[in-house]
Design a protein that fits this description.
By secondary structure, the protein is α+β, with helices and mostly antiparallel strands. The protein contains 16 helices and 64 strands.
């Protein structure tokens, strides 16, 4: 549950829940919306409770206080972290309270046992002032603090339904029991002088008998007892009657909307108690209607009910949609206070459904109603025709300086006539209004678990896009084209959205363009392929239409001349000398910023490997010493540090004048031992752009903390390898080759038998490192004990994702490739013509359980591309495999119901019946056969683009005819449902690909999967940790040089997610995430 906040001015705080003791949810202050806003997002932290805002350190700037990931976190208005500390799990709504002139952060948290804490923010550090050990379970206990009769106290109700009063001076907790039953829902008291007699009462939601609906508990804080002036005993229970499906409270169908609110509806100085609830009642008509609605309930201070309000239909609060049947859900909001009719008396308002009569009563729209003391309706404002557009929580504030309050909901800010003045569509909860940036205007703040956003009304936040010549680089592609990369930077204070970037060959005007979102102080890499000849120039321009207002408009364009790629000669002098060709082959095969040269006289760059290499021995004396580095035969000396481990190494490059008539670049690559030479050579290839283009001098050390170098050392000295170390054998030569090419793993092929008698293949790529190294990886957060399972899409086979599996194995992970389709015992002429349901019910469960049995583990991590993702999600949703066995599921381009448009969906839907008829009789077909048949049909129908498109339908791997036909049927079925509905997963990541449609540039898809399918799938999956990424790339390599599942960027997200690494660097590609 999340509650949100408002503030009144630059110097005003948001100290407590709803910013006052009475929970009125109607603050003072003025906003100037609609305005252009500077928007900031933090996808790492979000609070389950209402955030707090205050100038904690008295520096004139407000801080935001949230609790997330078992931490207390202080953020600035731009959502940068100022300080954080682990505090355990927070147990209820926190508050701020001024002690000795300083705002203290007050909260209950669990650290083995439960504690009441007081913290302050001082000198940029969070400091604990004191804590009190709590004897009861403090869960559900939201806190309010006040000065009562010159004594500072804090008040909350714990899980055991004890009222706790903390004396902040003596630091003593005094408890008063109110019920024999436990509390089960979050509660925060509303506190006020409800009788206008100088005493203060606290009012809570309360369930006295634990049997049906809630009521109110009123506690006299002065006399420390139940207030017998309220209903003669301080309690009134069951003020509404929800439908009960069982004896447990959790089977009762209701949601408490916020907390009780104290309001003076008739200006008599006394306070009425109001609340609202969303529930399914006990109407006799429930056989016809499964009906949920929101009801506002108002009581006087003596416990007498004044009135309750809901939208009445034919059966009272029931929806009244006679004859329609089904479930009807009209979820409104909590109550909030405003003087709607400007009489000087407070009015109580909430949002609910409105109905209309068209011969029978039906839903019309969601809207706001306000009521006076008599229960008269004084406001009826229509807001949205969607039953889901306005719900959960709402508040009111003057957001446009018109003297009236505006209504703030989860999707937009409304005027009192129902007109929207600011849209944001944040989802479940509404943003709150508080002056965060100190300009005396209200801003908007929104937070939920895992994410926080601010919309600041100050236009002084800058963006500054830039391109530098040094960030433009050239890589081999083919004999006529070059892969040109350019880094576009944003050094401003806010994210730049929809940045248009273009790259030109200035001679031929060939160009490529793209659109990026670039985070503040972030960058993106634009990497098109252009035809280029030597001495032609490229121009890179960011924001070429000048649509973005920047602090510096003069650094958006940059030129760089293509001087051709250098020729690179490699000389190796290592012992044993039979390994020397391995180093040359490795560089030759991985050189992308130059061309490999066999003749030293033709080369522009000379690479010398090995401490005994004569050129290195000369340069070690004549050049290295000038730069405070050198080597001897046991050490690397680098910038006053000495590295003596065998895996340490050095790479140094410098320009040497007119050797062989050229200004060569010389590159020294040395290691203390063979493993150091391997690590240093890999360091050179990793940074080849930098070293090959050295203008004066550049260098890098392979130091003691280089994990890749340690890994090489560990692999070479592993049992089975160590006995061949430097023995000159072919086995050692193979060990060196594997270490250079990141193939430090073993391959084991296995099979499983499905329950319906089909043999399926698996391939285990098992890391070949010592137990100590694996334990080190595990201790650093990489879950090496959880196997990774990879599966590609239709018409794939066991080897389709072997590259990614190899990369995982080389990083110490236990990788498994599974063959859902395409295997020799699946796709033979006499093999069964299996259905898609066979894949979900038999094949995939057998493969997953096979991995678990082979490894002896109880969980896996799974990555499924296309059909590999769809099969997994359907199988899990149907209960064929227990979802608890899946630690993390990553779906890459997973097809759903084929809603919306994609190129393949359109043409296969249009011509699929003809193709299926032509292939009928074949029990197993390849994608090439489908593509060839589609091409012939398209050509005969003069569909030129279709015929070009079919060139991407290439794969000799077969799949059953029935499965291919099922995809055709899904494409043409307008009634099939999206997959994954209500599937609960521990961790879920969805990676969506996009390209611009050829016919409609406003549409994106990956040629097969539609953006509507991915959005629906993401919405269907239930997970406390799920993220949705959208990356440029086609479904497979057939249609684009950028294949989504094979992109380095895609693989980087997959690796970091499965290795439990931070995902901050992918935020600009993140959408819809929680």
């Amino acid at each position: 549950m999340l509650f949100l906040i408002f503030s009144v001015s630059a110097n005003a705080d948001w100290n407590t829940y709803e910013n006052d003791l009475r929970n009125s949810a109607s603050p003072d202050g003025i906003g100037y919306f609609p305005v252009n806003t500077a928007n900031f997002t933090n996808n790492d932290f979000g609070t389950d409770f209402q955030p707090l805002v205050s100038d904690l350190d008295n520096d004139g700037n407000n801080e935001i206080i949230i609790f997330s990931n078992n931490s207390l976190i202080i953020l600035n208005p731009q959502l940068d972290i100022k300080s954080q500390t682990k505090i355990g799990s927070i147990l209820g709504q926190p508050t701020l309270f001024n002690l000795n002139g300083t705002a203290n952060i007050i909260f209950n948290a669990r650290q083995n046992s439960d504690y009441f804490f007081a913290y302050k923010f001082y000198n940029s550090t969070l400091v604990q002032i004191f804590n009190i050990s709590l004897t009861n379970d403090a869960d559900f206990g939201g806190i309010k603090c006040l000065n009562l009769n010159e004594t500072d106290i804090c008040v909350f109700k714990d899980r055991k339904n004890y009222v706790n009063i903390i004396n902040m001076g003596s630091r003593v907790d005094t408890k008063y029991n109110a019920s024999a039953y436990d509390e089960t829902r979050q509660t925060v008291p509303a506190i006020g002088d409800i009788y206008n007699d100088g005493r203060h009462e606290a009012v809570w939601w309360f369930n006295e008998d634990n049997s049906s609906g809630y009521g109110f508990l009123v506690f006299d804080l002065n006399n420390r007892r139940l207030d017998t002036n309220f209903n003669n005993r301080g309690i009134i229970d069951n003020i509404f009657s929800p439908l009960i499906l069982g004896p447990s409270l959790y089977h009762q169908l209701f949601t408490l909307k916020g907390q009780p609110v104290l309001v003076d509806l008739n200006r008599d100085g006394r306070l009425e108690i109001t609340a609202s609830v969303f529930y399914n009642d006990q109407s006799n008509n429930e056989a016809i209607f499964d009906d949920w609605f929101t009801e506002l309930i108002v009581y006087s201070n003596n416990g007498t009910k004044l009135f309750s309000k809901c939208e009445a239909g034919a059966y009272g609060c029931n929806d009244g949609e006679s004859g329609t049947g089904g479930k009807h859900v009209w979820e409104g909001t909590n109550p909030f206070v405003m003087d709607y009719d400007r009489t000087g008396a407070e009015d109580i308002c909430f949002i609910k459904d409105f109905k209309k009569n068209i011969g029978h009563v039906v839903f019309s729209n969601m809207g706001m109603n306000c009521y006076n003391y008599s229960g008269d309706e004084i406001a009826k404002v229509s807001l949205s025709s969607s039953p889901d557009a306005v719900k959960e929580t709402a508040m009111a504030a003057d957001m446009n300086d018109d003297g009236s309050k505006e209504i703030i909901t989860s999707t937009r800010v409304y005027l009192l006539n129902g007109t929207s003045i600011f849209d944001y569509n944040l989802g479940k909860y509404h943003p709150i209004a508080v002056d965060l940036d100190g300009n005396n205007g209200l801003d908007l703040l929104w937070s939920i678990n895992g994410q926080t956003k601010t919309f600041l009304d100050d236009n002084n936040y800058t963006m500054d896009l830039s391109v530098s010549s040094s960030d433009i680089n050239f890589f081999k592609f083919n004999s006529t084209h070059v892969n040109v990369t350019a880094v576009i930077k944003n050094s401003g204070q806010m994210q730049a959205d929809n940045v248009k970037v273009i790259m030109y060959n200035t001679e031929t005007l060939d160009n490529n363009a793209a659109v990026f979102n670039i985070r503040k102080n972030g960058n993106v890499t634009f990497s098109p392929i252009l035809p280029l000849k030597e001495k032609e120039k490229v121009l890179v321009s960011a924001d070429y239409d000048n649509e973005i207002n920047e602090s510096d408009e003069n650094n958006n364009d940059e030129f760089r001349t293509f001087l051709g790629l250098p020729y690179v000669f490699v000389s190796v002098d290592l012992e044993p000398n039979n390994i020397e060709p391995e180093f040359k082959d490795y560089i030759k095969n991985n050189l992308v910023s130059g061309y490999y040269a066999e003749n030293e006289n033709e080369a522009d760059v000379l690479v010398y490997i090995g401490k005994n290499n004569p050129r290195n021995r000369v340069n070690n004396i004549n050049v290295m010493d000038q730069h405070n580095m050198m080597y001897d035969y046991g050490n690397i000396n680098y910038n006053d540090k000495v590295y003596s481990n065998p895996f340490n190494g050095l790479v140094a490059s410098f320009k040497e004048d007119k050797q062989f008539g050229k200004n060569h670049v010389n590159i020294m690559v040395v290691g203390n031992e063979i493993e150091g030479s391997v690590a240093a050579t890999k360091e050179f290839i990793k940074n080849q752009v930098r070293f090959l283009n050295t203008q004066t001098f550049d260098s890098a050390a392979v130091d003691d903390g280089n994990e890749g170098a340690v890994k090489v050392w560990d692999y070479m000295h592993l049992g089975g390898n160590s006995e061949h170390y430097k023995d000159g054998s072919d086995e050692f030569k193979k060990i060196v080759r594997n270490a250079l090419n990141d193939k430090m793993f073993n391959v084991y092929d296995k099979t499983v038998l499905t329950s319906n008698g089909v043999n399926l293949r698996l391939r285990n790529l098992k890391a070949n490192f010592s137990d100590d190294f694996i334990d080190y990886l595990n201790s650093s957060g990489t879950p090496t004990d959880i196997p990774i399972v990879l599966a590609r899409g239709v018409h794939s086979n066991l080897t389709s994702w072997e590259v990614l599996g190899s990369e995982f194995a080389n990083e110490g992970r236990d990788a498994w490739l599974i063959e859902i389709t395409g295997g020799p015992d699946e796709e033979c002429d006499t093999c069964p013509n299996y259905n898609f349901s066979d894949l979900t019910d038999y094949y995939w469960p057998a493969l997953i359980n096979g991995v678990l049995n082979f490894t002896g583990r109880d969980k896996i991590q799974y990555v499924g591309h296309s059909n590999g993702g769809r099969v997994a999600i359907v199988s899990l949703a149907d209960g064929k495999v227990n979802p608890d066995k899946i630690d993390t599921l990553i779906g890459v381009a997973v097809p759903g119901a084929f809603e919306g448009y994609s190129t393949f969906g359109y043409y296969f839907g249009k011509y699929g019946e003809q193709i299926m008829n032509q292939l009928n009789g074949s029990s197993h077909v390849s994608m090439t056969e489908i593509g060839d048949n589609l091409r012939e049909i398209c050509l005969s129908d003069a569909e030129l683009f279709c015929s070009i498109f079919t060139r991407g339908l290439k794969s000799e791997s077969k799949m059953s005819f029935n499965s291919d036909k099922q995809y055709y049927l899904w494409i043409n079925d307008t009634k099939d449902e999206q997959i994954g509905k209500n599937l609960q997963l521990n961790n879920f990541y969805l990676i969506e690909g996009w390209v611009r449609d050829n016919t409609n540039k406003s549409i994106t898809h990956d040629f097969i999967v539609t953006e509507q399918d991915e959005k629906a799938l993401y919405g269907n999956i239930i997970s406390s940790n799920k993220k949705h990424y959208k990356l440029f790339g086609a479904h497979t390599a057939g249609w684009s040089s950028v294949s989504l599942p094979d992109r380095d960027f895609t693989k980087s997200i997959i690796k970091d997610a499965l290795n439990k690494k931070p995902l901050n660097k992918y935020k600009s590609n993140e959408i819809n995430s929680t």
